Amino acid sequence: MSKPRFDVTTIGEMLLRLSVPSGERLEATNHLDMHPAGAEANVATLLARLERRTCWFGALPENPLGRLAANALRDAGVDSAGIIQRTHGRLGTYYVEFGEAPRGIQVTYDRAHSCAAELDVNEIDWDSLLDTRLLHLTGITPALSPSCAEVVTSAVQKAKDRGVQLSFDINYRQKLWSEEKAAQALAPLIQNVEILFCSQTDAIRLFHCSGPSEEIAQRMLELSHAHHVILTRAEKGVLLWDGQKLTHEGARPTQIIDRLGAGDALASGVIHGWLDGDITSGLRYGITLAAMALSQRGDMVITNKAELLALSQQSSILTR
C-alpha cells in the first residue's frame, strides 16, 4: 500500500479576526488588529510548521480577503490544493474585545452568507481529502449550515469506509446552535474516532457528564467508543483516557497575551505526538503549544519543531 499524500487533512471555515487593543471597546475604537483564523486552519498551519504534510479544504472568495486567508495557509506550508475559489460570497469575520473580569472576552460574529457556509458535498475532492493518515474535524463546521453538516457527515462516513483515522474536536459554539441540537448532531459523528477532543465544560453541558474529571473522561469514551479521549480542563491541564490508562499533563505557566487558539494548539500537539506513535508525548506537546498560543497574538501559533521539542522537555508527565 502506498504512503498517504498527507499526514493530516481537515475541512472547515476560515474567518478574519478583527480585534481591538486590550482595554478598548469595539464601539469606540479607531484601530483593529487583523488575523486570519479558523479552528481547522489553526491546526493545519501549526502542524505544517512542525513539518507535517497538511491540507486544508474549504471555500474562500476570490478577493483580497480571500487571498489573505489563503496566503496564511501557504506561508505556513499547508498544501493549497483543497482551496475552493468562489467568485461570489464573502469571508466571515469576527470581532474580539479583550477584557478582564468581570467582563471577559467579548466576541461578535459576522459570518452570514460566507463562502464556507455554502460549501456543498459535491464540491469536495474526496480522493485528496482522504489521501491522509488522519482527518481532523470539529463541531464548528456542521453548525454553519445544513450543507456543511452534510459535508462533515459524508467526510466521517467516507473516512471510515476507506479506513482513514479520524480526530474530532467537539468545540461547541453556543452562538451557532443550542446545546440540545449540538449534542444530537455530534453524537453520531464522534463514534469510534481515533482521538476525541472535548473540554470538560462541553462534556457536562452537551453530554450531561458529571463527577470528577476522571469519571467524565471515562464517560466520554463510553459514549463515543473513541480510542483516545482528550479532556481539556483549562488551567488544570488535560487528561488522556484510552480505556486502560489515565494520563494527566498539567498546564504550563505563561503570560497571557491572547486567549484565542489555545485549544487548537493543544489538539495540534496531541496529533503531532500521535503521528509519531506516541500520544503521551503528544499531551506534553499540546500543553506546551497551548501555552505558546496564549503568549502570542493571533490564533495561528508560529513555532518550529526544534523549539517545540526543547520547550516541551521542560514539563513532566504524571501517569496513574
Question: How would you characterize this protein structure?
Answer:
There is one protein chain. With about 325 residues, the chain is an alpha/beta fold. The chain has a single domain, classed as 3-Layer(aba) Sandwich (UDP-N-acetylmuramoyl-L-alanine:D-glutamate ligase), CATH 3.40.1190.20. The chain contains 10 helices and 14 strands. The strands form 2 sheets. Strands 5-4-1-8-9-10-11-12-13-14 form a 10-stranded mixed β-sheet, with helices on both faces. Helix 2 links the parallel strand 4 and strand 5 (about 85). The radius of gyration is 18 Å and the shape is globular. The protein starts with 5 loop residues before the first strand and ends with a strand.
User: What percent strand?
Assistant: 15-25%
**Number of helical segments?**
10
- CATH homologous superfamily classification: Ribokinase
Report mean pLDDT, rounded to a whole number: 93
Task: Tell me what the CATH architecture is.
Answer: 3-Layer(aba) Sandwich
Cα radius of gyration in angstroms: 18 Å
What quaternary form is this? Answer: single chain
Fill in the CATH topology.
Answer: UDP-N-acetylmuramoyl-L-alanine:D-glutamate ligase
Largest sheet: 10 strands, mixed
Based on Cα principal axes, name the global outline.
globular
Which strand order does the major sheet show?
5-4-1-8-9-10-11-12-13-14
The number of E-state strands comes to 14
Question: pLDDT under 50 segments (min length 5)?
Answer: 315-320
Order of helices and strands: EEEHEHEEEHEHEHEHHEEEHHHE
Estimate percent helicity. Answer: 25-40%
Name of the top-level CATH class: Alpha Beta
Total domain count: 1
Q: What is the terminal-to-terminal distance?
A: 38 Å
